Amino acid sequence: MKRFVLSLLLAASGCASGELMRYSLPDTETDLAFVPASSERTQLGNGIGVLTSGFEHPATTTLALVFGRGYVDERVPGMAMLLGAWLQLEADTNLSPGLDAVGAVVSIDVGTTSTRLMVTVEHRDVPAAMQALSQLLVQADSELAFETAKGHQRGLVASHGRSPAQLARLALVQSTLSPSSTVFDSLGLGTAASLESISFAALKAARNDMFTSASACWLVVGPHDSNAAHAWAEAASGSWPHRASPKVVDVPVTKQPGVFTFVPLRGFDTATILVGTSVPPDPKPAVPIVVGAAMARSNHVMRELTQKTYGARLAVLDDGPLSLWGVTARVPPKDAKDAAGFMMSSFGTAETVTGQQLDYGTTRLVAAAYEQRSLAIVHLLRLHEAFERGYTLPAGAPFQSLSAQPGPEQVTRAYRKHFLVKHLHVVIVGDPDVIGPQLKNVTHVVRTPEEILGPRRAAHEEAPAPTSDAEKGRGTVSPWEAEAAGG
Amino acid sequence: MFLGAALLAASLSVPAAAPQSNPLIPSKRYTLKNGLRVVLHEDHSQPLVAVRVLYEVGRRDDPPGQQGMTHLLEHNLFGTTKHLEIPVWSELARMHAIRANASTEDDVMQLFEMVPPTSVRAAIRLEADRMGHARFKYDTLEDEKRIIVRELAEGRDDLQSGAALQTALRTLHPPTHPLHPSTGKTLAPITLDELEEFDRWSITPNNAILVLAGDLPSDTEERIEQYFGRLLPGPDVPEPEVPPIELSKTVRKEIAGAAGTGPLALVVWPLQEDDEAVAIVTNAVLARRFRRRGALQPSSPTGVLHNEALPLNFGGRTFGLASLGGFRAAPKALEAELRAALVEVIEHPPTTQELEAALRRRGVALLSELDSLERRAEFLARSEARDAPQGEINPTDVTPAQVRQFVDVQLVRAPSLVVLQTPPSGR
Fold it and tell me: Does residue B132 contact residue B231 with C-beta atoms inside 8 Å?
């Protein structure tokens, strides 16, 4: 309960305007680097990758089985998340005594382009945990768990339909992206109807398509060498036949003109405002700094000067192909229009970036590398990133360079390049009786929660089947099919 | 004993005389002449230092009718100081402090941040400065009152269970109780003089624990002495007497949830101090049972989304269960399922193996957090603060029979507070 109470009471971030100060920081004498433990990659004969990071935790190893398939690859909206929920239930119930025996709780994360099954166990239990994770995928076959998972997902769909934050996010995604984009339905939960249409057989077929050896990789973060990790991976999954997964054609993200959207939703003490835009994935650090600076400015205006909110928050809505950035705030409904104006102007006045806002922005960048509570998970996410994209940023960069690199000019350039007012989208979610009259003279569109939840992305084609020998692999039977056939 | 249980035991065993260092978090502990307790933990594997100052003042110290005083003080400690003309927030940003924040709990207030080693000196100076020389202004005080009211509103909107928790806290603690939730009304009468007086006795070296964990520069101790050593101790203030939570019969509250909330049942039982170890184990057993069996209820009318056995100390010494249901669920049915889970413990008490498995899960989860410097610093600060005599707590000694007895006598047959939250009927 304390966790809940804490959530209620924890202070938010804030920043204030610059004045002279008497303090000065000590000089930077050395360029201390955040050095992720070296990672090594090997590959099993059936194509499954093994990425090992020799991170020295005194007691536990964090490991994951990750597949390069997420909800952009699903054929029916909500399928990937349902698959994750089903496996989660299978893992939590008696199916996985192996995991329970080592005190492991599986955490399954279905993302835009990948799915990750992660556990933390004591060092000595790593082989057993890998075996149990592999078995979970192969042996999961409970229709009861499927029906239950479906019920859970339906509940979540209903719940998100009443969540201002989720509605604001979806409205922003839909006004930012083309409906033909693979990430248009970025919520990934699907709809009640799409979930209903999924049969148990279809779910298992989706598992066979998405989770194959060619799309899989083990991530091992602990004091183990890559030979040991490879051997454990071989024992756990070396018998999986090689099989590639079909891949859905990707639709590039393109900038759309800014839209002001109002979503009427009654019953909340606060109005939710989200201001953001899409930015092409950019390995340079200026974008998070720009957004950090904009957030600092929003926060300053709305918290310190007007007390309209407890704090404006950074909203990194998604990454990968979506790459949406924004600032969100909750304000009294009567202040919604004014607050939206403040937030827009905090993005649109790049030339007034102050030193302190820049400090705040750079700190956000550093925080992006460190803000996970568990360093093992930071390392694991780096490995995941390396698996998906072939590079990791920004934690590998020296700390001081990272925080000192961008100057006001660079940030201003990034502002002008990525955050044009004409591309800024604004979403307000809240009470129509109070907010509606405020928007009388503002050009805006009204979208109901039903309309936002309703659209489904346009159908997109499947990528051509792999043709090279390497892509084709050596077999066509997935491990679960082999298992069912007694293989 | 497996490592997870060993850590769990170590983390919860509290000798009356002095706290023990956990062997997995080696630390140096000492006390300055002014009474400031210092805990240093070195780990040079990453260029970060977690800085944490724990003050032994919390909501339980709030004056009657002025609930929220400690929280308000916490907010105002991010203003200016005698030697710092810009707000603390700005200085923290300049230090590239990440995860800089603060929390106010029932018994403690904590200020914390993580900084690169090159900012450790600045962080020590800043924390010493706001410990000894915080400056409060009328305008900031009034602003922060408004901001806290917004914060509380966000909390109510944020959480599925926010309104239910507020109701429970309000019901368990009468208006004069220090743990009665604060509101704009209780914050309004607090004056600048009263806040300064509250700061004078509570934000003092002898009421604080300073923890630095991570890549400590070699002159850390010297800097601590340089900046904190000059501060004068405050008065010795006895711990406040917090009236116990009393329920002579089961109390039921039915509330309408805010928009966006689902049906929820929350059941809370007051506990005796002696119950703590058994309660921890029961909590672990129920958490595991909920996860393993409770989730599989496709034909259940409640459509349970999430069951939770809540940690202890919910506004006092309590045990709680919560169930969040699908949108068609009846809150009463959710409550019935929670109570059925307790009856099941009586009818099918856990085996020794089940207790071990439950504790093992808990232990591994605790262990896995130890690579976080921030978590280590928090752990060390809390261990240091728990040196009040409260007996030995060792959950690994708890037997299945004790769990059964606890569930039967302290929960099933004891009065409880029930909060049933119904979602709004329409948008």
Answer: yes
